Amino acid sequence: MSTVTSEHPETTPSDPSDVNRRGMLDKLAALDAEHAKALAGGGEKYVARHHARGKLLARERIELLIDPDSAFLELSPLAGWGSDFTVGASLVTGIGVVEGVECLITANDPTVKGGASNPWTLRKALRSDEIARANRLPVISLVESGGADLPTQKEIFIPGGAMFRNLTRLSAEGIPTIALVFGNSTAGGAYIPGMSDYVVMVDGGAKVFLAGPPLVKMATGEDADDESLGGASMHARKSGLADYFAVDEQDAIRLGRQIVSRLNWTKQGPAAAPSYREPLYDADELLDIVPGDLKIPFDPRDVIARVVDGSVFDEFKPLYGSSLATGWASVHGYPVGILANARGVLFSEESQKAAQFIQLANRSDTPLIFLHNTTGYMVGQEYEQGGIIKHGAQMINAVANSKVPHVSILMGASYGAGHYGMCGRAFDPRFLFAWPSAKSAVMGPQQLAGVLSIVARAASEAKGLPYDEDGDAKMRAYVEGQIEAESLPMFLSGRLYDDGVIDPRDTRTVLGICLSAIHSAPVEGTSSFGVFRL
Ligand code: COA
């Protein structure tokens, strides 16, 4: 066993680590301000109105549902960031422990447009379904929603059917689905309880009908009220859609916990080691590691030393392909393989080392963690002639076909095909989180603006026209600004390209929760990969 040594020098104000820390703390403060927007939901007026109606907020419901003092790993809290919709997308999703069972919990936020689902809500809901399915997590939906956000219905009506399809497919796979209905659940929304295995409805709150009184009047001329069309009492006594009648919200939560306690649920993955050591180095020092300028390299072993059990990292092929560190460790008692970019660029050696390492992890059924800080695969004549495409393809083949669970953490740069090879979003990592220092795009802003400039210059030369240098400078500045903004973690998180932006100091805890959730499903590798182009 080899302990990662990671000296932490005393810092003075001029030390790079002090600059790094200040930069990271600034970014964390900016992140907190955005998270606060999600927590504020629809704002004071709607929160006060909701409370005045004797109702609990989405996060209050979740807090009562999960085991006392247990953690809730909220996912995608910044969904919708940068769009016209409220940050958080009127839905709270995350992983929480209920009666000792890790569950995927979703809760509509009725203070935001009555909990109506906009295009970002839909993406967030579908992402949480994916997480539940891949990790075999029981799903608990805390329902109170005005259904489709009507002005944007064209974006959600047709793809939105997947929400109901997914619920019944989860059920078909033996993953329990539980709906606790606190409020409105109308029209298409009625199929959330309709497709769930277990349904609890709150007296005086739940309204579950295909059409409310005005629409019924329009359609058939019948006069009916909310209660007789879709109240909890009616559904518990007459239609049979409610399996449990809750006298109030707290009672619904109690019943939800009772249902989970009777699922007789067991995890199918191997258990974590019963005891393990904490890292030898302080997680607080993770703030010092990433430079504000991502062109300056940092050693990911300094990160690994502060994240893995006992700071023990058994490095594989340490003398070969040294700009990618690969090795074995454990996190909260769960064995993992780690691939971590060490000096930005991926060369042929690193790619082949990664492909071999991923195959080995699949042989030993070991989950993989990818720590990103890459500018992509090496370019240039020497490397093209040396077969960088073939070798990069080997790594991407291994990542794409690997069947052990993957978790990606974007620490710094995650550019170009390097993002793919390191198991970017399109490669279905079970979870993907970014640090506030992360940046991800097809390439860096200066490079992208420079490429556009070269192409434009060549085009004007081909036409025999003089090149507009002033216009070029303006274009480059504009494009650089745009690409920089689009590569920042809040922007990417807003688009659901990650599962959240996390404080680096929380990395070990977040990984622990994810690994524990992952082991709800079997953890099995494969020996079936695509043809490795040798
Ligand atoms: N699409 C877009 N906006 C909606 C919405 C929807 N489906 N449902 C509610 N809203 C908006 C309201 O216009 C209101 O906006 P405002 O405060 O800016 O004026 C805000 O959300 C709050 O709605 P309000 O009706 O005041 O809240 P409520 O808590 O008293 O009632 C509902 C909530 C959901 C019961 C009620 O708004 C409703 O019946 N909405 C329509 C439900 C429906 O038929 N949906 C179609 C299903 S496919």
TrEMBL record:
InterPro entries, A to Z: AcCoA_carboxyl_beta (IPR034733), ClpP/crotonase-like_dom_sf (IPR029045), COA_CT_C (IPR011763), COA_CT_N (IPR011762), MCCB/AccD1-like (IPR045190)
Listed Gene3D superfamilies: 2-enoyl-CoA Hydratase, Chain A, domain 1
Gene Ontology molecular functions: ligase activity
Origin superkingdom: Bacteria
Residue stretches making up the CoA carboxyltransferase C-terminal domain: 282-520
Stored Pfam families: Carboxyl_trans (PF01039)
Region described as Disordered: 1-21
CoA carboxyltransferase N-terminal domain ranges (all copies): 24-275
Ranges of compositional bias, category Polar residues: 1-17
Protein name: Acyl-CoA carboxylase subunit beta
